[in-house]
Amino acid sequence: MTAAIEINAVEKRFGNVRIIHDLNLSVAQGERHAIIGPNGAGKSTTFNLVSGHIAPTSGEIKLNGNVISGLRPFEINRHGLSRSFQVTNVFARMTVWENIRCAVLWATGHRYAFWKNVDNLPVVRRRTTEILEDIHLAHRRDVPAGLLTYAEQRELEIGITIAGGANVIMLDEPTAGMSRAETERAVALIRRLTEGRTLVIVEHDMGVVFGLADRISVLVYGRIIASGTPEEIRGDAKVREAYLGEEAH
Amino acid sequence: MIDVTSSAPVATIEPKGQRLRFYGIWVIAAIALVVLPLVFSSGGSLTSFSLIGIAIIFALSYNILLGQTGLLSFGHAVHYGIGGFFAIHLMNAVAARGWPIPLPFVPLVGGIGGLLLAIVIGWVMTKRAGTVFAMISLGIGELVASSSLILRSVFGGESGITTDRTALPHVFGWSFGPQIQIYYLIAFWLMISAIAMYALTRTPLGRICNAVRDNPERVEFIGYDPHVVRYIAYGFAGFFAGVAGGLSAINFEIANSAYLGAAQSGIVLFATFIGGTAYFFGPILGAILVTYLQLGLTDVTTVWQLYFGIIFIGIVMFAPGGMAGILMMHRPLVRAGTLGMIIPSYLVALIPTLALACGVILVIETIARYTQGEGSGAIINLLGIPFNATSPLTWFAAAILTIGGFFVARLSWRRIAEAWDRATTVARDRGYLA
Fold it and tell me: Which residues in chain B are closer than 8 Å to A86, comparing Cβ atoms?
């Protein structure tokens, strides 16, 4: 079976600064894959490379077997990859309902249609309703997204990310800044919503990472130094030395 | 994939009453447009209504860019102007060659002219939003306006190109000579354009335009190319601006370089912003007010542009939501039944605020008349009271009204703010405010 994501020898430079060196990573279909590493290791850059936010300087990225490196974000999204953002990135003046609905429109084939009444699309309406229920924001559907609480905005962010039905979901620190209770809720939500899909997650909370991931890759200074199951990563001497050493206990 | 067959409850469809009320508004608007000239039948009001109708279409088309898609254009009048010239040339060709095209179709050709220009210049312009778009629009505006003076055969130079609207084939015995017939022609196109532009906001494209306005970066990650979204929106804005320009050409029987210029682009920005960009009806209010002021103020004062500037600055600083924003602020209070709590404070504030306004007007007019010399007349007529601009008594009155009015008005504004706090607290308790 082709890997959901395959990163081959990707390098990214900003001017003379090399952020990502020879990055190689393979994420299998249906796997929950966490990328961990210290601050500045290049985790967010990796996300930006895969989702098309920035283009790699060299190397190749494949999504379900198709080369996507160099494509624009919306093209990659149409190939079935959707990502969330570390800093909440919603449509602030539009209501919760509108936010989710916008994220459903392309995937349901309505694209740039200017001859259809958007309130009169049953499939869109049904999907939007379902996602609102899934992310527990149905009671806030008419509130502008900018007025939601922080935790609610994070949930909306996840909702927008999964709304298009992409089969590869990338979440960038979905629980950052959340309380313990909110984190637990968010993890349960992520687990449920990504059922049957491929998930790539960047996370600092080791509890979340080890609880959620099937496989973990450790990124240090723009290189993957280890990749394996949570047990393998826990036992890896290089990882303990480079990263977990200070944070594991 | 998401399981779309699950049994989650489908969101309730809008209640029938709401839908009826929605159609009711359009029907009432149509009836008002029909009845208006019967109530106010003087030639002057017919002319005013015609101009207001054109201004509304133009401002609504501008709001497709500013309010819906978040594009601040300083050159929207190029589409208005091109629409006007398309219409003029078509009318002259129809008259010369005897084509069977009656006048009511001419604005459509104006719209096509505006759309064609948008298709040509739009792709480059809409590549980026924000400052880049604003600057390019300014440049394009200047480019088209200056070329209108160079390409004399197309734009007719400074004098423009004239036409005779009655030379076109008549329909239903209408010659379209009398202003009343032109008014109804404009009202017809106003209804069609307003409904079409409203409907546009309720389509998938219209919703995505809002998303592009709020967050173009995020739009890329839900499958949309914001450049394409902006380009299509620009096309629609160009089309309806062209319709307005075509109607203007019919109304005045002339198209000249003023149609395309920066002043025309400024006026539409001004009207749209004053009316309020966040609501569909905002630009309608703005277009009515600005056209009315334009027509009314120019007769009364020589410095009418100064008043425009003051109003604009006031709106930008104190009510960035425009007139529509101010009105809609009250909606939750009306629903919660707490509007009565703030009305008294409004009435109290009215008197000192009016005094302040009179004071400011008196100061402006006194200075204007005084510096312009005796030629323009030294007597200022304010609220029926004649003031002599050269008399110290007038200066004294102006100073008292302005300074005294300001201090008293400031106290009364504070009371409005307090009343607002109380009213919104109650409204929030009753669940009408988030």
Answer: none
Q: Which residue of B has its CA nearest to A123?
A: B4
The pLDDT tens digits for B114-144 are 999 999 999 999 999 999 999 999 999 999 9
pLDDT in tens, B6-58: 333 334 445 567 777 888 999 999 999 999 999 998 889 999 999 999 999 99
Query: What residues in chain A have per-residue pLDDT under 50?
Result: 248-249
* Domain spans of chain B, in order of start: 29-325, 331-429
Q: B1, B2, B201: best mutation site toward chain A, by most A Cβ within 10 Å?
A: B2
Report the predicted TM-score, pTM, of the whole model to 2 decimal places.
0.92
| CATH match of B29-325 with 3.40.50 | no
The residues, any chain, with a CB within 8 Å of residue B81's CB and separated by 6 or more, are B144, B145, B148, B245, B255, B257, B259, B260, B261, B264
Task: Write the residue in B200, B220, B224 that is nearest to A114 by C-beta.
Answer: B200
Whether B433 contacts chain A with CB within 8 A: no
Residues 6+ apart with CB under 8 A from A156: A90, A96, A99, A100, A135, A137, A145, A148
When divided into structural domains, chain A yields a total of 1
Say yes or no for a CB contact (<8 Å) between B202 and A118. yes
B233 in Cβ contact with B209 (< 8 Å): yes
B228-264 pLDDT tens trace:
999 999 999 999 999 999 999 999 999 999 999 999 9
Answer whether B434 touches A (CB < 8 Å). Answer: yes
Q: How confident is the model at residue B375 (pLDDT cuts 50, 70, 90)?
A: low
Find the domain containing A170 and state its range.
5-247
Nearest CA in chain A to B14: A119
Contact status, residue A190 vs residue A171, Cβ threshold 8 Å: yes
B203 at A interface, C-beta within 8 A: yes
Domain CATH for A227? 3.40.50.300
The pLDDT of residue B14 is 52
Specify which residues B15 forms β-bridges with. none
Give the tens place of pLDDT for each residue, B150-183.
888 889 888 899 999 999 988 888 899 999 999 9
Give the one of B1, B223, B236 whose C-beta lies nearest to A77's C-beta: B223
Do the beta carbons of residue A157 and residue A176 sit within 8 Å? no
Find, among B258, B240, B235, B131, the residue nearest to B190 by Cα: B240
B299 touches chain A (CB under 8 A): no
CB contact under 8 A, B4 and A130: yes
Complex ipTM: 0.94
Q: Mind giving me the DSSP string for B367-380?
A: HHHHHH-GGG-SEE
Minimal C-alpha gap between B226 and chain A (Å):
9
H runs (alpha helix) in B319-342: 322-329, 331-336
